[in-house]
Amino acid sequence: MRHRPGPHVRDRSIPEATVGRLPRYLQALAGMAADGTAVASSEELALAAGVTSAKVRKDLSHLGSYGTRGVGYDIAYLIHQIRRELGLTQDWGIAIAGIGNLGHALANYKGFGDRGFRVAALVDVDPAKVGERVGELEVVHIDTLPELVKELGLAIGVIATPAIAVQDVADRMVAAGIRSILNFAPAPLVAPPGVSVRSVDLAVELQILAYYEQRKAVLADVRRRGGAVAFAPTR
Amino acid sequence: MRHRPGPHVRDRSIPEATVGRLPRYLQALAGMAADGTAVASSEELALAAGVTSAKVRKDLSHLGSYGTRGVGYDIAYLIHQIRRELGLTQDWGIAIAGIGNLGHALANYKGFGDRGFRVAALVDVDPAKVGERVGELEVVHIDTLPELVKELGLAIGVIATPAIAVQDVADRMVAAGIRSILNFAPAPLVAPPGVSVRSVDLAVELQILAYYEQRKAVLADVRRRGGAVAFAPTR
DNA sequence: CAGTGTGAACCTTTTCACAGCA
DNA sequence: TGCTGTGAAAAGGTTCACACTG
């Protein structure tokens, strides 16, 4: 049950896999624009984004026909269209919960501001953390989240707490009116329907690499004995 | 061209999607074991890991038949099997390159040590950073990477540099003998075949959330006018 | 008889290959 | 002529449903 468009409601949704790649195209296009390039073919864009040209064409075709046959895509125009599609024409206020090592790093991370996200609030449960200055912000107690969300118009919450606190913090965020959560803590999280959640677990990424690394060792061994092998995926 | 097993070489590879979930099962199982539970059904494990029970059974079936019909899975035994499959019975030495905000946070991140990864080296190109102590380690110049890799037996490199430095750092890592790279910098990275790469871009995750957040607003609008809607995926 | 293990159906994503347009 | 846009085919992943077994 992914799509149930009503009568006369054109389905404007874009495949999930494509949504996941649009930010990378945006980044690649920004690099080209900075170099003064005006037009890019699907082949060039694919190279810069690290995917195949067929994927680029298929992905972009979901946004509309923004290319010119025989020529390529107008970079500035395509950047605009992707930004519009991703909803990056407005800027998004985000709240970071859990101001430990990772929370600090996220609060200071330049990459957010550059790409339309404004770190607008830092919250923590620990009274000892409250009042600490991090960059231009002061850490406040998580109890004030409901007011912050209303006053600052926050839509996205980032969780950088220890695993044990995840569900509690997520519940508080949802209660405060936040409807999108990015979770960095190594624990799953349940949220009511209508709230989007993405989880990034740093150790999980390493464990996946370890699997393929180990596999390479095993395969090298097999190969030495005369079997054929295939390389690990690189995503 | 993913698989080309030679004659008499049984294909022991596990689907990529399954590999991506095994670490989560491991985590869920660890939690259950800590609670003193001895056996878990696919239903219980699914709940704890945030997936469906059919997925759990299918995923685990790729490892072998480690469950008991009518009963469930022996937690301790299953943990052992998954750890073995992921290659977590050995511990992996990792090198972190780029000791800025994010590099600091990663160097101090407890979650790595807890799960079989040992941060064994911190490197940077900036001479001003060299010599700085972070936790129990001292930052050394990236030029010493080849010796570090050999002496410490490092296999995995983590890149936490600015985007501009990514490719250079990756090339140095590969030259030094590292064959798995986890990249946190917001730039794509090309590596020779045989080197696995995973990229995690914090701003990309936010951009994906922004898309669904924006979409919810649009859909709420459509719904108000009488159309039917579907919710954004929550992965 | 509860719950695993697994074919088969279904859905999504990727890749192919080429018609059609600037 | 060169490159986009897109149907059609192939591959990969998920869900269903039930035979089988401890």
Could you walk me through the main structural features you see in this protein, from its secondary elements to its overall organization?
Two copies of one chain form a homodimer. Chain A has 235 residues and is α/β, with parallel strands linked by helices. Chain A has three domains: 16-86, Winged helix-like DNA-binding domain superfamily/Winged helix DNA-binding domain (Arc Repressor Mutant, subunit A), CATH 1.10.10.10; 92-200, NAD(P)-binding Rossmann-like Domain (Rossmann fold, 3-Layer(aba) Sandwich); 207-235. In chain A, 44% of the residues lie in helices and 17% in strands. Chain A is built from nine helices and ten strands. The first copy, chain A, has helices at residues 16-34, 42-49, 53-61, 75-86, 101-108, 110-114, 145-152, 166-176, 202-224, and strands at residues 39-40, 67-68, 72-74, 92-97, 117-124, 133-134, 137-141, 156-159, 180-183, 196-199. In chain A, the strands form two sheets. Chain A has a seven-stranded mixed β-sheet with strand order 6-7-5-4-8-9-10. In chain A, helix 1 (16-34) runs antiparallel to helix 4 and helix 7 (145-152) packs across helix 8. The longest helix of chain A has 23 residues, at 202-224. Chain A starts with 15 loop residues before the first helix and ends in an 11-residue tail after the last helix. Mean pLDDT of chain A is 91; it is low at 1-10. The interface between A and B is large, with 92 and 91 residues.
